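Can't paste images in this forum, so I'm doing it all in text. The chain is below; anyone willing to post the predicted structure tokens underneath?
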Amino acid sequence: MPVHHDDEMLRLGRRAWANLELLHVVGYFAPETQAAYEALGLRGRAGYFASRSAPMGAVDAPVTVATFYVFAPRAVDSVLPSAWSVASPEEVTQARYEGVAKALHRILGDVDVREAAALARTACEALTPQGRPLYAAHTSLRWPDEPLMQLWHAATLVREHRGDGHISALVQAGLPALEALVLNGLAAGNTEFLQQRRGWTPEEWADTQASLREQGLLDDALQLSADGRALVAALEVGTERAAAEGWTHLGPAGTARLVELVTPLRRAVVADEHTPEWLSHRR
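Text version of the structure:
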């Protein structure tokens, strides 16, 4: 039987995820991680696709297209599987950890995160892998020894677990990848970023906007309509419920304490010059 989650637990869980998400995404924007990938010979988006896919092994492009969902297949095809002839998944994962560790130490300094890491790890103990392939792959990685990297690894597990659940919600709603991306960009205020980074052409983006307008999900100004906002809100609620098992296990007091401990770290990441401004609005 499904577990009932009250609104307060869902709210706390979302806040915990949002704070941990800011720690996780350091790896996508920090120069330290880019330098680590380039040292292996992986340039541009090859570092991103290879590093996030690496826990699944030397996979071909279709596996990454399926598990990342919102990227244009051509963008993935351009770097996978060719990246694995440059560096192995194990080498890429090691480079990712080393780059992230350098970036977090630069941004956060000498900070004691042992309590936060222990709480986040407790939440991860209850996360289930069924139906969550990208999360499941990341669980095969060894927990780091350093508390700061333990916290980052927990943030990664929480992030990928939630992301897999969100993709399930999108599939169940019948939203193709680019439709989901357009709606998400409008809801999050990061359309320009997504247009630049997800590999779709301007023509594909415009055609999808037109289709969403015909469906009544966008208005004449190509902004979210009332129906569009309602759909996005429903998808978020479904995603939060699917992601709640870890926070329910940690409990309201533990989850609230984790939020309290990670909030200052989140602020430091937001203040870093390499963090996109739109991420600061994620709550």
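Residues 7-281 form one domain. The chain has a mean pLDDT of 95.
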